[in-house]
Amino acid sequence: MAAEGTEDLSGNGEMENSAEELSDSEVTVAPIAETSLAAEDAGDTAMEGVETTAPYMPAAEGEEEDEGEVPADFERLWKAAHDNPQEFSSWTDLLQYCEQEGHMTSSRRSLNAFLERYPLCYGYWKKFADMERRAGNNVKAEEVCAQGLKAIPLSVDLWIHYINLLLGTLNMNLLESTQRIRSVFEEAVEAAGMEWHSDRLWDLYAEWEKEQGNLKAMTVVYDRALKMPTQLYRGHFDKLKTHINSNPPLDILSEEEYQSLRAEYKQSQAQGEGSNPTEEEEERPPGEEPTDNDDGKDSEEAIQKMQELLVAGREKIFQENEAEVRKRWTFEDAIKRPYFHVKPLDKAQLKGWHAYLDWEMQESKGAHDAPPPPPPPAAPAPEAATEDGEAESKGEVEENQQPEQDTPKAAVEKVSNHKRVLVLFERCLIACALYEEFWLKYVHYLEQHGVEEARGAFKRACEIHLPSKHTIHIQWATFEERQGNGVEAQRILEVLERATPGLAVVRLRRVGLERRLGHLELAETLLTEAVEQSKENRQLHSFYSIKLARLLHKLGKNAARARTVLQDAITLSPENSKLHLNLLELEVSGDPRANGPGVQQCISRALEAPLSPRTKILFSQRGLQFAEDFGTTIQSVLTIYDEHQKLLKEIGPKKRGAENGDSDDQDAKVSRPDDVASVQTAPPAMPPAVPPPPMMGDMSGSYGSYSSWYQQPQYGGYSGYQNPWNQYNQYYPPT
Fold this sequence. Notes:
By secondary structure, the protein is mainly alpha-helical. The chain has helices spanning 63-67, 74-83, 88-101, 104-117, 122-134, 138-151, 156-169, 175-192, 199-211, 215-225, 233-246, 249-252, 255-273, 279-283, 300-333, 347-364, 417-431, 436-447, 451-465, 470-482, 486-499, 504-516, 520-533, 538-555, 559-572, 577-588, 592-608, 613-630, 634-661, 665-668, 673-676.
């Protein structure tokens, strides 16, 4: 029986292997939750309904008192890890300290907390199980392994560890123990049998059946492995040939397949001898049927011929599988870090994952006519696995392990292409679990096959791996809102805002959601709270004030309250031209006969504020335009005209200087009344499964970041305001 090899674990619980060792040591693990690996057909149900739950909590109440007080530095290290849970080294320091101290309660507490935050570190699941087993808690050790496999069912290494644990603790003389081991093997190959590095698992399963004396089951296992495009695919075929050539067909085949093979053999023999009647047939009386002298035993020659037929039939399957391997070889060779780590991946690996996923998805749609990528010219030869599951040295294996270039194209009997895509995504999401882009790509693919599958991926990403990433949370909320689940969308955004307080884009998404749900009062309350809470940040306060005023004015039809909000904001930030502009828009949009004084008061307030010269001139021009269009007396128009001319003389030189270097000019441009409504528009709802534009930085710290939400139009139509007022001289000569 293959035993678990010893390995050194680094600080994050991953295998420390060289590049050569990684080809055979299973280090690629990925999470599966909900129905993300559910097969297309109804028969594939092994992974359906699997949920990612909180890690197993084996400690019982009062157990800590039985062991005495916790180690001296435990609380300090525990606090350091929880104060900054994203600092991976703090967790590894805590876990290493607990392991050194050997305190069971502290170790359990630390491992549970760590695995809840980083469930993809399969090495720590193994450590957890081994710790329980050394303490004599075999049942708890099994439960830890089972819990780990719910989180990362693609981990071949963890499956083998679990099986070896059962083999070492169960009474294998009992029939139920054998049945349980076989059942676990079936669960393992169903969950992880399509993993690129799953060869050890298949070999272990086949060798175990051989130890049980079940050669027929061993044949079935290798027949299944023969169809899997894995790294050591050739080794399965070689071992299957050895198995076939070492045993009579009757001992390794089911009765049905054996009879079919025997009939094929007899037919080939008859075709080889021709149609001439034998001497016995010539001497048989007319009408007498030939007697069957078959005693059920095969001659050595018959056995050899049938073995050759068996190998020839498997050869065709092997060639088809080899074609599939050849297509994927270049992509797989580019994967340098298939396991989870908090360190970022380089751009080449990220690009490689994207290319691999895109190709596999295209392949699943039936695009088999596209030429496969050629294997690298000097790709390392896959290692063959020995009977005990360990990799042989490269010098002991066949040199030409790479698929031949002239292999025929795969044509029939392919394993579910959809499931292959799912497995590849799950493999990708172990190495790229901290990248929103891959989760969003996965969700977009899953949504084409089912809402619940997409929801499960969103849930795993947001609640386990990316609890503080706002883009994917916002996309999840958008997804739920599109499904008509507004309550869930509200919950998602509320949780996100607690995790990322002060992020303006999240508050605005909450406001927009409540408004679309018809909760106008709640939307107003959210903006009012934001205005009150942002007074220490004047730019953010101005931003929220503008949003609140527009809501009150446009939807609440309460111009008085909107005016008060803007006036209060101007008192706090008189230099903000956007506030003056929005107040002017509010006044102009009302009844011009009743709002004339309000418009001129707004203009006067802007002229007295610490704005740039160009901005003041534009506001003054706007006041003169309003007076010309809606003024009730000629004297009022002339008065405003004189004030504008006076302003031009006073700050004309300043305006020219501002044109050369004032950055506030663009923000201060004034629009026509029919254009002002477009000054601020809420961000459009994002299309399904397309990530929104990333907000570069926390908006609570930089008001300038909201430019993507608050786009000022280019007021080119008003460029003529610099001199065109001279045209009025013929009507209103200077006084």
